[in-house]
Amino acid sequence: MPTPNLDPRLTPARPDLADASLAGVVSAARFVTGEPRRVVAASAPLRRAPSPESGIDTEAVLGDAVTLYEVRDGFAWVRLTHDGYVGYLAADSLGPADPAPTHRVAALRTFLYPVADLKRPPRGHLSLGAALAVTGTAGDYLETPGGFVFARHCVPVARREPDPAGTAERLVGTPYLWGGRTSLGLDCSGLVQLCLDLAGLPCPRDADQQERALGAPLSTDLAGLARGDLVFWRGHVGMMLDATRLIHANGHHMAVAVEPLREATARILANSYGPVTSIRRFF
Fold first, then answer.
1. Which of the residues 71, 135, 167, 281 has the least number of beta carbons within 10 Å of its own beta carbon?
2. What is the DSSP secondary structure assignment for residue 20, as one 8-state letter?
3. Model pTM above 0.85
4. pLDDT tens digits for 42-97?
């Protein structure tokens, strides 16, 4: 059977194993129906190979739904539900699909406590956007299967952030991390995806996918830009704060930073990453 031109980032298929929905589409020794699971770790790197030395393609965070295909040697081969990305998570980062999340973290970061007491050593931190299944309350805290979270750091999962650029501004100074998708570390497309996700706007993971999928094209003459417009280069993306200022997670600053768009375009061009390839608007 000829192999179709499918994006390997989004295709749960290997020579030995593939999703049952791909039977007749790809060649594989075995086809399986994946099982629903949910991320129970604060965050979990998704890698392209089942090894801690393998590069990080993206991150899943607490509450993310996944489809599980295989567990072997401590790694789970999965497909992330929210953006379709396929790869390997640590097997112990997954738990049952239920209960479904009821709240999400709205603070940049918060702590998960063993009891409803801020003086107790926390079990870990949770990032902006992490989703929680709240089972009860205890004073100022929400109770979840994993512990207690300060209630005012959380909002119902249906609550939307109306201004993605405003969310991005809150993240200024966050260190750059290739594959990062949390408030501890972000890459360029991870920043855009997080901000749009919190606004209730579905967004692919990588910059090239975002460039193809999001919004309507504008002229690349850098004129007439508005807050929320997305500016793309080969392998890079940023968001406009207004007609002239760009916010982006980038390796030059090694952080989420704000700078004049024309300064950024000149530097990126000089560093051989090329000119702006497109500008997209969907607000």
1. 135
2. G
3. yes
4. 999 999 999 999 999 999 999 999 999 999 999 999 999 999 999 999 999 999 99
Tell me the CA distances in angstroms from 273 to 73, 178, 192, 230, 265, one per residue in order.
39, 17, 19, 17, 10
| Rounded Cα distance, 178 and 236, in Å | 12
Q: How many Cα atoms occupy the beta-carbon half-sphere of 127 within 13 Å?
A: 24
Sign of CA dihedral 258, 259, 260, 264: negative
Residue type, 24: G
Question: How confident is the model over 218-243, as a mean pLDDT?
Answer: 97
Nearest Cα neighbor of 190 from 172, 177, 199 is: 177
Report the run of H or E that residue 230 belongs to, with start and end.
Answer: strand 230-233
Q: Are 172 and 126 in contact (CB under 8 A)?
A: no
Q: Which residues contact 92 (CB under 8 A, 6 or more apart)?
A: 41, 74
Cβ pair 230, 279 in contact under 8 A: yes
**What is the spatial distance between Cα 272 and Cα 258, in angstroms, rounded to a whole number?**
21
Specify the DSSP element, H or E, that contains 105: strand 103-105
Helices marked H in the chain — which ranges?
Answer: 164-170, 188-198, 207-213, 261-270
CATH architecture under which domain 18-95 falls = Roll (2.30)
Residue-range domain boundaries for the chain: 18-95, 103-156, 164-281
